[in-house]
Amino acid sequence: MSLTERLVQIVGPGYVSTDADVLAGLSVDHTGRYRGRAGLLVRPGSADEVADVLRACRDAGAYVTVQGGRTSLVAGTVPEHDDVLLSTERLRDVGDVDVLERRIRVGAGVTLAAVQRAASAAGLVFGVDLAARDSATVGGMASTNAGGLRTVRYGNMGEQVIGLDVALPDGTVVRRHSQVRMDNTGYDLASLFIGAEGTLGVITTLDLRLHPAPRSRVTAVCGFADLDALVEAGRAFREMDGIAALELIDARASALTAEHVGVSAPVEGAWQLLVELAGDTDQTERLAEALDDARLAGEPAVGVDAAAQQRLWQVREAVAEVLGVYGPPLKFDVSLPLSAIHPFATQAADLVAAQAPDAIPVLFGHVGEGNLHLNLVRCVLDADTEHALYSAMMELIAGLGGNVSSEHGVGSRKRDYVSMSRSDNDIAAMRAVKAAFDPTGYLNPAVLFD
Question: Could you say which cofactors this protein requires (predicted)?
Fold first, then answer.
């Protein structure tokens, strides 16, 4: 029996495809910049089916690339070896919200937006938010330990996961769930799969922590002439009780959103900071007091009611809409000490001007954690020049004490640069863990390791 026939036997004929057009469409990453090749697509409908699919692929000697919402920005879902594409899109069960314990159980293929809707209907909130909420799936978000717009308040995805089911490379399923809040029984296996980028197993189900919804919010966008002044304000805000969001946007991003989607910055300044405070009492006075000490370029724009807050958030969220207006952007997702943000912005701009003079560098991101997204818009380079620029940027980040990868993971795009952020012994330990779970290396073979 061929592998295709075996997979049809496991999941049914409607959930296996070898159509060349379908596979081609699924073998390109979210940015449109990186392409691979796949042999077939399989869409299992349960944890047990996922496990059976993995066992069949392992026995057949086939490589497997796992795909969720395919919003990876580091080619984490791009197959390189005529792989079997294992999609989690049918794992869409959404359980009832446990209001008393503030938790919900969902399938790995459930979108972030669906989790947010379920939480909101129960008067709660989910702690992670992304611009790609309508397509990003919670399984993929856990696999990359995604951060996003609310990380400064609630933490990364790993801090929201309190249980999960994982199909292992040998075709078994680990079901790690607990009804108690403190459970130190044995190894913390669940956390091992958070941020592993699908290299150790396929997450199929998650128990997610929910949070009380704040009664009051106040949002502001502030303009700064000087990036150091913005970082100084950001450092002060991130230590405040009630901080809910802290986002940096540069004026080049605002110029693009104004030109292409009609969303203009409401303040003057080369740099903008979106701040949101939330709590059970009115936060407006606390915001005003904090801004008194900030070196602003002018008066901030403040939103107290929901409609005004939404308008201010458009400034940040519209950035994602314009990054591809000149074709696929070249993306750098980095984590830096706050003290290195200004040197990075200056030196990165100089590097781009020297090696990609036609590109427009756009910088934005989660300044509270030093997690920034540098996007080179209108960046058309040959392969060698792009590789040279990418490597130089990674060296710049590492030289400033940063991490070459942050909330987007390593994927295949950054695997050659892991040694800039991890020691040889660290990498050897990670390889040992990978070999223990997946000795033949067939699961997500292009990701993380070369």
Answer: FAD
CA–CA distance, 196 with 142 (Å, rounded to integer): 9
3-state secondary structure the chain: CCHHHHHHHHHCHHHEECCHHHHHHHCECCCCCCECCEEEEECCCCHHHHHHHHHHHHHHCCCEEEECCCCCCCCCCCCCCCEEEEECCCCCCECCCECCCCEEEEECCCEHHHHHHHHHHCCEEECCCCCCCCCCEHHHHHHHCCCCCCHHHHCCHHHCEEEEEEECCCCCEEEECCCCCCCCCCCCHHHHHCCCCCCCCEEEEEEEEEEECCCEEEEEEEEECCHHHHHHHHHHHHCCCCEEEEEEEEHHHHHHHHHHHCCCCCCCCCEEEEEEEEECCCCHHHHHHHHHCCCCCCCCEEECCHHHHHHHHHHHHCHHHHCCECECCEEEEEECCHHHHHHHHHHHHHHHHHHCCCCEEEEEEECCCCEEEEEEECCCCCHHHHHHHHHHHHHHHHHCCCECCCCCCCCCCCHHHHHHCCCHHHHHHHHHHHHHHCCCCCECCCCCCC
CATH of 103-212, one of 3.30.450.30, 3.40.50.720, 3.30.465.10, 3.40.50.150: 3.30.465.10
Collapsing DSSP states into helix, strand and coil, what is residue 128?
coil
Res. 75 pLDDT band, cuts 50 70 90: low
Pair 67, 135: CB distance under 8 Å: no
Between 255 and 415, the more confident residue is 255
* Whole-number pLDDT of residue 76: 67
Tokens of 411: 């994927």
Domain 216-321, what architecture? 2-Layer Sandwich (3.30)
Give the model's pLDDT for residue 3. Answer: 94
Q: What is the DSSP letter of 296?
A: -
Entry field: residues in the chain: 450
Percent of the chain exceeding pLDDT 70 equals: 98
